[in-house]
Write a structure and sequence with these properties.
The protein is of the alpha+beta class. It contains eight helices and 21 strands. Bound molecules: zinc ion.
Length: 400
């Protein structure tokens, strides 16, 4: 048994060395924590005695925490000289790095997984949860998160738009919003292509304030980030709607669900199944209507998520006021959505009705028109030819 613990012990001097090196970053330490976690995971698999591995993991976490505290104490010490200009340049460079476009995968879905244990991370706001499939996750301590004013101010579990007193004009031109970090994770709400007609933006003079993601009835819809459910109700237009407020102030909307699986006040982690796909409200076919809003102002969710591959596009988002160009409220015009879907169906039907004919010896446009129940001028229009065009044998003509 003991030999499985050796790699963990062997890792500790390396961590101590890291603590002595000049100005090691918190990110480096966190990366090592992750490595150590992976190490502990494999140990646990090897040993098959989970409790022993969990103990060693806990002692490792305790050790990391001590080092973090030591680091904090050192940083606070007046003997450490920091060039303010350099510090500012560093923090700007760091922010630019976080704002850069990248591909961030979903965290695993915890649905159906057994929780083996919850460990204290040493930080009150944070827990480490070990799952039955040998994976682990940082989870925010709900009791701590609940104290955040984000979940008190403008908090309303019945009204979709509780932000009437917010002066949007007074908002800064841009806001830096942290989407994920080592404690906050991400999961796609639904993985699939955005309906080309269901993109965010103006359509026929109206405004579509989210994206439409076609799905099959009953497919799981996931919480995008951790947060607290503000709205879970049937709303005309949206149908079964869930709104989750996240601790960075963003809200995500999930509309047209066939089932709602969470209620107002519930805490959810990224990847929790919050509802099932459906077609309730003003919708003519199963799809998820997904919105992202900040203080009630909608902006294009495709700025954050690449729905086709399910990836988050950045760690930190620079939300510019120009992204919500007009002052919107929670009202959503679903007439448009219906018109779009009807147009889609019409085009699909047209596509399905298309017929082609390969020219054989003796074919004439007149004969083809009769054969396919159409007219010569229609065939000419569909193929961009004239009635006098000579039909080349082997050429394919669209006849319907
Ligand atoms: Zn929609």
């Amino acid at each position: 048994m003991k030999k499985y613990l050796l790699p963990v012990v062997a890792l500790l001097p390396a961590l101590a060395a890291e603590a002595r090196s000049p100005r090691p970053s918190r990110a480096q330490l966190q990366e090592q924590t992750i490595e150590a976690q992976a190490e502990a995971d494999s140990l646990r698999r090897l040993s098959n005695v989970q409790s022993v591995a969990i103990d060693s993991l806990q002692s490792l976490l305790d050790n990391m925490q001590e080092q973090l505290e030591a680091r904090t104490a050192r940083t606070a010490a007046p003997t450490v000289e920091v060039d303010p200009e350099q510090a500012e340049a560093d923090s700007i460079a760091n922010l630019q790095l976080r704002l850069r476009r990248k591909q961030i995968e979903s965290t695993f879905d915890t649905e159906g997984l057994t929780i083996l244990d919850t460990l204290n991370s040493g930080n009150d706001a944070l827990h480490v949860i070990l799952y039955g499939n040998n994976t682990w996750k940082y989870v925010r301590n709900r009791a701590v998160a609940r104290d955040s004013t984000i979940f008190e101010k403008y908090w309303d579990t019945t009204s979709l738009f509780p932000y009437r007193d917010v002066d949007i004009a007074a908002m800064p031109q841009s806001v830096v919003i942290d989407l994920i970090d080592s404690t906050k994770s991400y999961h796609y709400p639904y993985k699939g292509a955005v309906n080309p007609r269901g993109k965010y933006g103006p359509r026929r003079g109206r405004r579509h304030q989210g994206v439409d993601l076609p799905l099959k009835m009953g497919e799981p819809v996931y919480a995008t980030f951790c947060g607290r459910v503000r709205i879970s109700q049937y709303v005309s237009g949206y149908g079964n709607l869930i709104i989750i407020r996240h601790d960075n102030g963003l809200e995500t909307y999930y509309g047209h669900l066939s089932e709602r699986l969470v209620k107002p006040g519930d805490w959810v982690e990224a990847g929790h199944v919050i509802g099932k796909g459906g077609s309730t409200g003003r919708s003519t076919g199963p799809h998820l209507h997904f919105e992202t809003r900040y203080y009630g102002q909608a902006f294009d969710p495709e700025r954050l998520i690449d729905f086709q591959n399910g990836m988050l596009c950045r760690e930190t988002f620079l939300l510019k006021k120009s992204f919500f160009s007009i002052y919107s409220n929670a009202g959503q015009d679903f007439e448009d959505e219906i018109a779009n879907e009807e147009q889609d169906k019409k085009e699909e039907a047209e596509k399905a009705a298309m017929r082609y004919h390969k020219i054989r010896s003796g074919d004439t446009l007149g004969a083809l028109a009769i054969k396919y129940g159409t007219t010569v001028s229609n065939i000419c229009r569909l193929n961009g030819i004239k009635s006098t065009t000579i039909l080349r044998i082997g050429r394919t003509l669209r006849v319907r």
